[in-house]
Amino acid sequence: MQPDDAHLVRAVLDGDQDSFSVLVARHTTMVRAVAFGMLGGGVPVDDLAQEAFLRSYRYLATLSDHANFGGWLCGITRRICLDFLRSNRRPVMSLDEIRDAGGDFSEPRDPELELKNEVHEAMLNMPAELRQVMVMRYIDRHSYERMAEILGVSRATVSARLMHARKLLREKLNRKR
Question: Which of 1.10.10.10, 1.10.238.10, 3.40.50.300, 3.30.1370.10 is the CATH number of 95-176?
Answer without folding.
Answer: 1.10.10.10
